[in-house]
């Protein structure tokens, strides 16, 4: 049998060797929490400062900031007071939401109304923590309780509420209220899931043009009538972009009929092309009025066929107009075909040639009126020269009336032969 080796027992390391690393770790953790507490201290609003309250509640003042405010009672009599909500503290420590975090005592009674802040802005005290958003975004609006489970959820909601984003269009009402009724609106017609570069382009446009409303519509499911014929034809997977600028009117009856104009993007989709389009719309360049407002309908084959027919008619009209513009004016009728229109065009052509050859300038209306006045004077002078006066002498023979003739009415124009014979007998009778 082989020899069995005995295991050597190992002794524990000395405590002095572990003490130094443990102290280093403890000091590092203390320093971390100390610095975290120093950097994450949330300011408190002075409830007696009316200007500060109006700035936080209504966004009045030059700061133009948005605020996320936690209702937190102020410590009294030198006590420590209640701890700040961990959800609110974590969101503040994250720092990615575009808000200023503040604390306020919502039990304070406002002197103007005699109501507490809870009562003034109808905040539900039972929902804890009680957090509201106010400032530039508007009057205080309480955060729903479902978004207050973690600091990350609160931060996400604040970003959605306060960061600029494109409005989602799903109905005709949304299109009118969120886009067409705005002064300038950029509409993205998505042909599928947007690529990252499209998202970045829209985000950059939202940051560069805060006064412009941006919106998007899913073209795979929805069809925008009275607009599609002005845009490139729909192809699955390809996105289109158009900018609206309101001409006049509004949604209220007193505003009158809403009218708008468009600039469609005909180039490839990119930030530069979209930026140039929005800039032209703001400067009023290349705008085209449309006769009817766009509308939202479900995409069907029937609507696509009708839109394709409109597109073909527009192409035919443009082609015919281009052909007519290429023809010289005198070649509209190649020859005088004897018709009224042909003779008129022939006269106009000869007149134009004569005027161009002899450097004849068209006469002004005053010159034409003067020529007409002189012509009438000459006509009156010639008419005076050739004027003939009629005979006014009295006693002229007027002829013998038919009734005063010497012959009788019953005479037939022949003499009586018997009477002539009697006369002859009287003259020649010798016996």
Give your account of this protein's structure.
The chain has helices at residues 15-39, 50-58, 86-94, 117-120, 151-162, 172-180, 196-208, 271-283, 301-326, 340-358, 365-385, 417-428, and strands spanning 66-71, 100-104, 131-135, 138-142, 167-169, 184-190, 213-218, 222-225, 240-248, 259-264, 288-289, 295-298. With 431 residues, the protein is an alpha/beta fold. Strands 5-7-6-9-10-11 form a 6-stranded mixed sheet, sandwiched between helices. The protein has a 4-stranded mixed sheet with strand order 2-1-3-4. Strands 8-12 form a two-stranded antiparallel ribbon. Helix 3 links the parallel strand 1 and strand 2 (100-104). Helix 3 crosses helix 5. The radius of gyration is 52 Å and the shape is elongated.
Overview in brief:
With 431 residues, this protein is of the alpha/beta class. 40% of the residues lie in helices and 14% in strands.
- Average pLDDT confidence is 82
| Poorly predicted regions | 391-396, 399-425
Strand tally: 12
Please list the strands of the largest sheet in the order they lie side by side: 5-7-6-9-10-11
Number of helices: 12
Structural class: alpha/beta
Overall radius of gyration:
52 Å
Instruction: Give the SSE string.
Output: HHEHEHEEHEHEHEEEEHEEHHHH
How far from one another are the termini?
234 Å
Largest sheet: 6 strands, mixed
| Form type | elongated
Helix proportion: 25-40%
Beta-strand content estimate: 5-15%
Please describe the topology of this protein.
Elements (H helix, E strand, L loop, with lengths): L14 H25 L10 H9 L7 E6 L14 H9 L5 E5 L12 H4 L10 E5 L2 E5 L8 H12 L4 E3 L2 H9 L3 E7 L5 H13 L4 E6 L3 E4 L14 E9 L10 E6 L6 H13 L4 E2 L5 E4 L2 H26 L13 H19 L6 H21 L31 H12 L3
Parallel strand pairs: 1-2, 5-7, 6-7
Antiparallel strand pairs: 1-3, 3-4, 6-9, 8-12, 9-10, 10-11
Helix pairs in contact: 3-5
């Amino acid at each position: 049998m082989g020899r069995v080796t005995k295991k050597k027992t190992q002794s524990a390391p000395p405590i002095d060797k572990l003490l130094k690393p443990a102290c280093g770790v403890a000091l590092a953790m203390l320093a971390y929490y100390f610095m975290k507490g120093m950097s994450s201290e949330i300011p408190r609003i002075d409830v007696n400062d009316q200007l500060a309250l109006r700035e936080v509640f209504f966004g009045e003042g030059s700061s133009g900031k948005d605020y996320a405010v936690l209702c937190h009672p102020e410590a009294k009599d030198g006590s420590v007071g209640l701890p700040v909500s961990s959800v609110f503290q974590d969101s503040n420590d994250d720092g990615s939401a575009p808000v200023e975090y503040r604390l306020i005592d919502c039990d304070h009674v406002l002197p103007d109304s005699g109501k507490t802040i809870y009562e003034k802005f109808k905040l539900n005290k039972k929902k804890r923590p009680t957090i509201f958003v106010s400032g530039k975004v508007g009057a205080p609006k309480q955060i729903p309780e479902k978004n207050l489970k973690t600091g990350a959820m609160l931060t996400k909601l604040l970003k959605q509420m306060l960061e600029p984003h494109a409005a989602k269009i799903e109905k005709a009402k949304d299109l009118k209220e969120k886009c067409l009724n705005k002064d300038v609106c950029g509409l993205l017609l998505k042909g599928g899931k947007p690529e990252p570069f499209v998202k970045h382009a829209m985000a950059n446009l939202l940051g560069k043009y805060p006064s412009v409303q941006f919106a998007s519509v899913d073209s795979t499911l929805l069809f925008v009538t009275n607009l599609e014929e002005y845009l490139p034809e729909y192809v699955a997977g390809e996105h289109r972009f158009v900018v609206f600028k309101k001409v006049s009117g509004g949604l209220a009856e007193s505003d009158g009929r809403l009218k708008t104009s468009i600039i469609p993007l005909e180039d490839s989709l990119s930030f530069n092309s979209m930026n140039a389009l929005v800039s032209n719309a703001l400067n009023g360049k290349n705008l085209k009025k449309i006769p009817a407002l766009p509308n939202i309908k479900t995409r069907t084959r029937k609507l696509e066929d009708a839109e394709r027919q409109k597109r073909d008619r527009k192409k035919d009209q443009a082609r015919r107009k281009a052909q007519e513009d290429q023809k010289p004016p005198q070649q509209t009728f190649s020859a005088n075909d004897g018709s009224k229109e042909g003779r008129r065009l022939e006269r106009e052509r000869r007149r134009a040639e004569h005027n161009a050859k002899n450097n004849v300038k068209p006469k002004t209306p005053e010159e034409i009126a003067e020529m007409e006045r002189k012509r009438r004077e000459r006509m009156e002078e010639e008419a005076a020269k050739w004027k003939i006066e009629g005979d006014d002498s009295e006693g002229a023979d007027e002829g013998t009336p038919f009734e005063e003739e010497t012959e009788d009415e019953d005479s037939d124009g022949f003499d009586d032969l018997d009477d002539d014979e009697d006369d002859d007998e009287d003259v020649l009778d010798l016996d």
